[in-house]
Fold each of these.
Amino acid sequence: MSRIRLLPEIVASQVAAGEVVERPASVVKELIENSVDAGARKIDILIRRGGISLVRVIDDGCGMDRDDALLSLERHATSKIRSAADLHAISTLGFRGEALPSIASVSRFRLTTREADAVAGTEIIVNGGKIDIVRDGGEAPGTQVEVRSLFYNLPARRKFLRSENTESRNIEHQLHLQAIGHPQIAFAFVRDDRLVFQLPPAANLHDRIRDLHGNELLERLLPLTGAGLDKIDISGLIGQAGVSRQTRAQQLVFVNGRAVESPVVTAGLREGYHTALMRGQFPVTFLFLNLDPASVDVNVHPAKREVRFRDPTAVREAVVNSIRRALEGGRGDWREKFRAPNVSQPSAPPIEPETRPIEVQPAFAQQIEMPPRVAPSGFEGPRKLPDTAPAEEKIDKEIPQQFQIIGVLNKLYVLMENADGLVLVDQHAAHERILFEELRRRMEEQGVPSQKLLLPQTFDLSPRDAEWVERNMSILQKMGIGIEGFGPNTFKIDSLPAFLKTSDPVSFMQRVVDDLKSASNSSSALRLGEEMIAKTVCRHAVKANDPLRYLEVEKLIQDLLGCDLPYCCPHGRPTMIQISLAELEKKFGRRSAIQT
Ligand code: ADP
Ligand code: MG
């Protein structure tokens, strides 16, 4: 007796539904994508009880005639592709012809649809995959799909649903993706009879983000520009350095208009942000990749969430480059912000750099040792300009920013004043950033100056640590750490980078190794390259709470503002925080005081 049997159509649909319809948010996704493909300009979404009891999506798209409406519920019925050849270059969101029959097979389903010029529309009611009613319907042109009691006929699936709140949140996330992906379409979202948001059609992504997330986020975003590679176009907005989240919820990536999760792009984002991102944090991105549809395969997974790139390396590099450029470009804005309040009088004669007045609050001046102003010793080194430079240029270069230092709090936070108000600089984080960039630059130029120890020291490590040091020996040496093997699991260290001021090189090395070990456990071993080691070395090179002299503080700030990424330390923590005058006014109740 034959044991192989063809599955009845309904069962086959339910099997397919297992992949396409995981949870209410997948229903929302498929329905909205259909509306987008239908050319909708306005999409209304209503859900009840986390979408489990009801999902309704209404669009003003092209609608369907009765034959098409019936066909749309057949498996593998689609208007979007015709042949296998079309699969190679998909430009619509849907193409599998699976969503509607799958959803209809696991719910109580109602479709009403009408073409713009049709006298009457069509209403179809399906229960658990069985068409029960087909009749004329009187809705407005467009399509309306209602999905009730999801998985009512598949109790096993229903059990896997999470709480209504969680399912609601998933739906909301899906709506954010769709709203950001299609700014020109108006969206309204009602949850349990409460209007959650109503988005008018937006002229561009910028406006859509503002409507959805508010101005505060928008102000902290930087624009992305094309990667320079003609085949891969990148646009969108990303969070500036220091803006991050604990989850991926705001890491949005679109490939040819489709929201996707792509390990290739994610890796590119991480690499692009690099030190601008705190460990374990996720960036905020609204990133749009556009490339030849033929070089992307979206037919990887039934939910079409994953994509495969024909040239993943090129895509990753394009992402890395455009993120880096955006982050570094964002620096200009900060420099602008860090200009001091307008104190200089235009009529004042040009000021010699060495003697320019620095406004120091008396308390601070007393507390720190102020070297004589005429011939300060703190300005030697690369910043000193040849005397032949014309006076004006001299000032420009010597004082890239004007800032007014107020003082130092708790031996750690530098207080500064700028046009916007108060700026707090974490001395420690700033120092790390400066050292790191310097170390990186020197390494590229093949030469970190190192300083011989008075006495070479030997030390032992556990076999595992020893192996790690062995493997990374050449990198350490490149960083100016004079280390070499000295017997099994024993090492000799005879010099350290010149910038490093430690009296105990052995415990310094031990701390660096420990730190790097914990890093390699938590993040992928891949990231433990030169940069990671450099970051760690810098962290341990900086000593906390070193009281700095005034000129040192000033130099620190200047060096910091000269960095590529001045506003966060190599580990992604902020180096400076701005507290605006407006915020202060609010805190002191001045605003309302003026009004009343
Ligand atoms: P796919 O989107 O992969 O083609 P679906 O099962 O999602 O498959 O939809 C089947 C077909 O039904 C679509 O190809 C489209 O022609 C039609 N359709 C679905 N939803 C709509 C809609 N909201 N407006 C107009 N046509 C629709
Ligand atoms: Mg579809």
Amino acid sequence: MAKYKIAWLPGDGIGIEVLEAAKIVLDKLNLDAEYIHGDIGWEFWCKEGDAFPERTIDLLNNVNAAMFGAITSKPVKAAEAELIPELKGKGLVYRSPIVRMRQLFDLYTCLRPIKAYPGNPLNFKENIDIVVFRENTEDLYSGVEFNPVPEELRDLLLKISKPFSAFKDIPLDRYAISCKINTKKGSEKIICAAFNFAKKFGRKKVTVVHKANVVRATDGLFFETAKEIAKDYPGIQLDDANIDAMTMWLLKNPFNYDVLVAPNLYGDIISDLCAQMVGGLGFGCSGNIGDKLAVFEPTHGSAPKYFGQYKVNPIATILAAKMMLDWLGEKDMAVKLENAVAEVIKEGKVRTYDMGGNNKTLEMANEIASKL
Ligand code: NAI
Ligand code: MG
């Protein structure tokens, strides 16, 4: 029996191509793993009305970790679902399987390392080395949303919230409400994860990203929790910044930042900004990490316009595989893989289109594998 069971979730579009590339390097490393395919994505929503079928959930309950490619996600309303023959009459509304996966398996940490590998022509500046901890299950992504707004909710809000009176005369179908829900426990978990990481890897500063001066209840809770937790980590500086100012400071001086921690939405935004500073979507890798399961993925989507061409950059996914090796405790393999990626980037002989080259997805993977 193999040492590890890995769920293998290619998903849609280029997700399939980049996972094929990741498999090349993992095979070259001889990771003692059984890779088990799982169905996920748009295709299954259209066929079965479920983009994240029960059998895939069962699979994830029985593996050590998962590699996930990307999915095609569309905001389909019930009326549009009626137009898909297989789904007609079922009253279904599309929900992102990724958000569901994160909530179902409590993958509360979204870890995104942001590193400028020397020689990458896409680096915004050299020597950037930031790690983003994004809360992954709560906040504006909690899925509690209303459009149209139910009458009971409006009446309740009118009773208990003064500022809400500004909306009292708007017809219920002419506005929408999305709830930003942040819990003390959820905030503690992600903030502790960030501080533990800083401690383990000798990082000096944790910057909390928020907007507590305006969004006082939720972001206030997050920031206050960070202040409490920071007391337990005397060697590590607690820093904070408003999300809007943060986007500016990050561009101006990325070297001021070390570890960032943020609620879900702000974390999503800054991690994309950070990813662009070190090469963009072809380099952005991410781990969705819980206490029992972790799912590793490139941060990009299914890029339908490139699907079938095998031309996108697989480095993001290969770096996600490196993160998986770290999570599994295969430190030597992880270091070896990262060094191989760094070497190929530095040599600059093999480059995909985004890096200004003509090489294909699997050529890049084979070049990296040749260094292992
Ligand atoms: P996308 O990330 O799929 O692609 C946007 C553009 O980024 C591409 O057209 C391409 O120019 C570039 N790009 C992406 N990956 C690349 C790579 N590996 N190498 C080089 N260039 C790359 O975003 P888009 O087009 O907005 O969304 C397409 C679909 O993906 C949508 O249905 C969206 O909902 C979904 N999506 C899924 C995500 C996931 O599965 N985690 C994340 C983001 C979007
Ligand atoms: Mg994103």
